Every structure is written in C-alpha cells, then in structure tokens.
Amino acid sequence: MRWKGRRVSENVEDRRGGGAKVGGISILGLVVAFVAWKFFGVDPQQAYQATQQITQQSQQSESAITQPSSAEKEVAEFVATVLADTEDTWTKIFSLEGMQYRQPKLVMFSGVVNSGCGRAESAMGPFYCPADQKIYIDTVFFKEMHQQLGISANLNVSERQVQGEAGDFAQAYVLAHEVGHHVQNLLGISAQVEQARLKSNTNQSNQLSVRLELQADCFAGVWANQNQQRTQFLEQGDIEVAMDAANKIGDDYLQKRARGQVVPDSFTHGSSQQRMQWFQTGLKSGDINRCNTINANL
Ligand SMILES: [Zn+2]
C-alpha cells in the first residue's frame, strides 16, 4: 500500500506513554501568568516572559521523557494518513448524497484509556465510541494481528517496512472499519439498531450486532474502492492481505482459536465468510447503498 506523502489528519490525539500535551502546558503557563499578575502584581510583560521560559523548560523536560521512537512516529504518521484518506473520501461520498461529513477524532493510546464509553483496555481491540465520536486504538494491535493471527506484512511491495506487523492495508482496513462505525452513527443507523436491540433477546441482539459489524466492513470496502480511485494507493497483494485479515477476525475463526468450537448464536461480528463477503461487496461496488446488511438476508 502506498501511503507516504499524502495529507495527514489533524484529528489524531496521541495519548501513548502519557503523551506530552503542549497545549496543556501553554494553558497552564497562561494561568500562572494571570495568577502572578493578579496576586503578586508582577508586570504582565515580565510574567509573559517568565511563563514562556517555564513553557519552554517543561516542553524540553516532557519531550525528554516521552520522546517517541522512530517506529512510534512512523505508526502515528501511518494512522494519520489513513484517517485523512477516510476524511477526504467520506466527505466526498456524503456531499454527493447532499450531506455533510463530520470528521471523527482518533485517540492512540497504550495500555488503558478513558473514553466517552468508559475505561477501555488494549486487549479489547480498537473500537469506536459513539458518545464522544472518537476512535480508540492501541497500535500494539497491529503487531498482534501479525504475531497472534499470522496476518502477514507484505514486505516486498510495501513502503511500510516495519518488521513484525500486519500488512499495512490490513491495518488500514481495521481503521476504515472503525470509521465505518462512525459513518453508521452519522447516518443514524447505530441509533436505530440500538433501539431494536432494546426489544430483543440475547440471540437477536447478537444478530443485530453482527449486521452492524458487517456493514462497517462493507463501508471499509467502499472507502478502499473510492480511495483507490482518488489516490491509486493499492499495490499488488494488498487486497489478499486484507481479506486474510477479515477472515481471521471472523467470530468463528476467533472462537475456534480460543475455545476449539464455534457457537454461531454468540457471534457479534459475523463469520469469516460473512466478513470477507461484505468487505468485498463494498470494495467491488464502491457504493454505500450496496451495504444494507441491516435488512439483507444473511
Ligand atoms: Zn466493529
């Protein structure tokens, strides 16, 4: 997958390793300046200079502690590029339908994170929180896709030559799937399905969850199709790697791995076959109207 040199999104919030917040420091600096001026009668000019010094010092010390490695910078750049790709593509799709696309934020975290949907752990995998319209991802997931599920990196043809991680288009598919949940939220589909789930038993509720997940897969495919037309980003082997990923994150595949047996009624994301099929439906058509998994005969 080609991804270098394109626009990077400004909607990424990096909370890995405690993440230095330059904005926070500046605000703190302003508060310090205000307090100094108000209560100690320090000349505002002096106070301003003093806080500038404080800000610079704390920036230096924070950056010394949290200096990201080049691999961490690379993955952040990759995520921000894919997110920008989804912004550009979905903005266009929405405007063709006479709607306005509202860009989601994406939070990169490590270990645990406090989201608008509660506290979440890395082990839960990437997720979208409708309450704060943010996507949360611990990028260690990309390594796990490779190490635990054997989703291979396509090193021969990829610009992203990071060892030990899943293929970059497989990673992009995961991000695009989460963006797909945001699109469902904007279109009001998530709310409708939530309503229906309240009136249903556990099996029906799981079934509705599957339908939502498959639609997010289909939307990821639509994105890939449209993004290809816009940027020609796909390389040979990319689709196969992403299909392999869709296969290996199917509920039946994961259940078989975890428990040695499959319990279809407990599926919440769909079988491998279904996930591959709906991703492909979106990918081939590039048309969101083909993604009606909610009413489709699955
Ligand atoms: Zn999902």
Automatic annotation (TrEMBL):
| InterPro entries, alphabetized | Uncharacterised_pept_Zn_put
Localization (cell): Membrane
Positions of transmembrane segments: 20-40
Membrane topology according to the record: Single-pass membrane protein
* Signal sequence coordinates: none
Q: Which Pfam families match?
A: Zn_peptidase
The record's GO CC annotations read:
membrane
Cite the entry's keywords alphabetically.
Membrane, Transmembrane, Transmembrane helix
Q: Which domain of life is it from?
A: Bacteria
The name this protein goes by in its record: Neutral zinc metallopeptidase
The species this protein belongs to is Acinetobacter calcoaceticus
